[in-house]
Each structure stands twice: as structure tokens, then as C-alpha cells.
Amino acid sequence: MGYFLASPVRRLWYTPGSLVAAHLKPGMTVLEPGPGMGFFTIEMARLVGAGGRVVAVDIERKMLDVLMRRAAKAGVADRIDARACAPDSMGLSGLAGRVDFVFVCAVVHELPNQEMFFRETAQAMKPGAALLLVEPSGHVSEHEFDQELKLAGAAGLKIERQVTIRRSHAALLKKS
Which of 30, 64, 143, 149 is least buried, going by the fewest C-beta atoms within 10 A? Predict the structure, then answer.
């Protein structure tokens, strides 16, 4: 499945740059939970430039290893901090208040503790930082997505606007 997630075929649903480019600037720190093999990670590393960084957090060490090989090939490995984490925590304590943007695509519905996820993510974010939450509508019902948004709200993230992304539920959230 990991190879499909990094495959050019996935571009039929998502184009990495088109989803995140408007939210990224050179020098930013980006958090990407569940990056898989780096379908979005590599493009985000290009967009944040040499002075920026993308923190990619995943429970699958093998996925992170492939991500870093792909990033090295693309010339952006020095901008990516790939971190293996435990299933119950992303281990982001060193990032408290440092993240400018969070990109979460097709991840939250897979998590055993969504409340903890949003709490940890909000703690890592700077005031005013944004989180783009995208869930596939084929796997996540509108009701389930609304529940995710409520958990995000309880963690201090407010909905700025709903976002239209093909075959997805999506929203841009901000930390106050």
C-alpha cells in the first residue's frame, strides 16, 4: 500500500503542490503526521526552502526510511526531520510552539486516540499557525469528520473555513 501512496497514480486524486503551496513560505516549520513514503513531504520540503524544515512523524520506520531515500534523490533530505513515533504519542515535546503549518491527510481516522493527536498537534503549533485536515470521503463519513473537527476544537483549533478537495472532507483550522 505504501508504494501506491507515493505513486504518480495518486496524483489523479491529489497534486501535492496544489494542496499546500498557498499555506507555505520559505523558512517555515511544517509538521506532517503519517507521511508514508513522502508523497506530500518532498514537495513541502521544496516549498519551505533551505531555511525551512518538514517534521515527518510516522509509526512505520520502513516508510520513513523510504521517504528519506526519496528525499535524498530529490535533493531535499537536509530539510526533512523524519521521526519514528509510538502508536500512542507523536513525541513532539521538542516542537512545542514551533510549528507554522500542519498537514494531515488521510491519517486521523486511522488513529486509536484522536483526542490525544489533536492535543499534541495543537501544543506543537505556534499561535496563528494553520492545520489543513483532509480525510477521504470514501473512508470517513461526514459525521465522523465532524467528530474530528469537534476534537480539534476542544484542543484549541478553530475552523477557519471548509476546503473543497476532490473526494475528500477538508477544513483549514487555526490555533488561536
Answer: 143
Q: What are 96-147's pLDDT values in tens digits? A: 999 999 999 999 999 999 999 999 999 999 999 999 999 999 999 999 999 9
C-alpha dist (Å) from residue 42 to 12, 48, 71: 18, 10, 6
Of 87, 108, 112, 101, the closest CA to residue 169 belongs to: 108
Residue 91 CB contacts under 8 Å (≥ 6 apart), including other chains? 57, 83, 85
CATH number, domain at 90?
Answer: 3.40.50.150
Question: Full-prediction pTM beyond 0.70?
Answer: yes
Secondary structure class of 140 (helix, strand, coil): coil
Q: What is the average pLDDT score of the chain?
A: 92
Measured CA to CA in angstroms, residue 147 lies from 48, 110, 154 at distances of 31, 14, 11
Count of domains observed in the chain: 1
